[in-house]
Amino acid sequence: MISLVAFVRPVHAVTISVSNVPSSLDQSQEVDADVFLSCDGCSDSYLRGVFYPSGTNYFGFTQNNQGQWIGTSNDKTQYFKVGENDLFEGSWSGKLKVKPDPADSAYSGPGNYVFKVGRYTGGGSATWSNEVSLAISGPTATQAPTKTPTPAPQATNTLTPTIIHSPTKKSTPTKTPTPKISLTPTIEVSPSGIVLGTETAATPSGGIKPVLPLIIALLLVAIGLAIIAIVLVWKKRKLQ
């Protein structure tokens, strides 16, 4: 005969309650909540306070035994520890320091929220306290203005003026007319009936003086005047 013996593992009744929570607080304000834990025969417990608008989108910080602020963590043993030896007749009561986490994505700004405290085992299973309604105040998150893209400036064809150099007119030197000496023969009737056009002068000795020296003198005068005129023209050109 074979007898089967069933071993039934005792189930510990766990209750947790929270009180002394303000009805309103600032988003950066710390709260000392009163927690009562009844867990006769329980092993180590880890307490966490949470804020949430609805559902299970929890946020908030809980200060652990080392004074560290712990937010949402997969390692539940990082929260405030109530050891098995801390229980007195199966219960524990004390303060749990908590505060909101405005940087958490579950926080949607000032408004109405719910607060409660959870008791975790080392394996991660949770038991929750009663819920407390409260209002969280603080600055309203403003959306950063959307930058309007500025169109890139388009290059435009700019006409560059072309400088056309006009040919410089050269001044033409004014020619100074060369004075011409006109020799006009003068015919005078002398008492002796001699024509002066051919001009033969009577010498004291009664002979005829030739006119060649007079012509040569006149030519020299003309040549001198011509040279003077040429010099004047040359100087004028040089000055220009």
Automatic annotation (TrEMBL):
The chain crosses the membrane at residues 211-234. Residues 141-183 are annotated as: Disordered. Keywords: Membrane, Transmembrane, Transmembrane helix. Residues 141-162, 169-183 have a biased composition (Low complexity). This is Uncharacterized protein.
